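Trying the structure run again after the queue cleared.
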Amino acid sequence: MSSTEDPAAKDRPAKLVVTGATKTYQTNSGPLHAVADFSMSIADGEFACIVGPSGCGKTTLLWSIAGLHSLTSGRVTLDGEEITEPHSQIGMVFQEANLLPWRNLDKNIELPFEIKRQKPDRERINKLIDRVGLAGFGNKFPRELSGGMQQRAAIVRALSFNPSVLLMDEPFGALDAFTRDEMNLLVEEIWLETRKTILFVTHNITEAVFLSDRVFVMSARPGRLAKIFDIPFPRPRTLDLLATKEVFDLVNEIKAEIQIGATPANHTSTENVQPASSPSRTPPSEPGQSGDRTNG
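Done. Tokens:
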């Protein structure tokens, strides 16, 4: 066990609790059931990931947790307070950086403070900019920044007002593999330094295993909780970990669980969902297959 390994979630109080979350959209062709009776509890300071088939409601769930979507039924609480609208203690990083093209990096990062009519915390912002390697780029516009640099700026913006919870909606999906690895290392380093509670949505199973304490697997739409996997690897983690048989087996076990629940007929009840035990010895994917990604 590493000295910096995160304590077990059961030893910490619940920070973020989702209870019976259900979301149904009313469309011209009839109701669309996106999420059904999804429940989860995230401990204070935990790093958790959500994976599942494409279209299973991962983003819908995350946006509801952020207070950006209302639920049809169920509830989300942060430290016991119900979340029904955006909250000052919840920061969000989206799939795209969403930097305004007419504002430079500094002005984009300061936008949340302007919306709240608060004075920007330049000391904190400058420290974060330096921490993510963007020092000296404050006057640059989005068109002058690479995709990785834009997402670094988005992370700074989300952390600039010092939220206790950070939600990340597949923020590195559009990046090349090398840059994605760099960003994953950066996010883990920031988490180790700050111990923010992080809930991270991804299609990439290897990314989920590398980053998280626990992985929550969703079934096909309407998304339900299919299984929870505890990630046993000590921290800090390095990219060398991804080449181990233990990670390879665990990635394939999670992939198999996603495939089992990839059709509505195979939905699993959430009443008695138990954490998965140690990685099974299921046959690994053949070399060259996309064994670390869900479809979409």
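The chain has a mean pLDDT of 87. Worth checking whether this holds up in the mutant runs.
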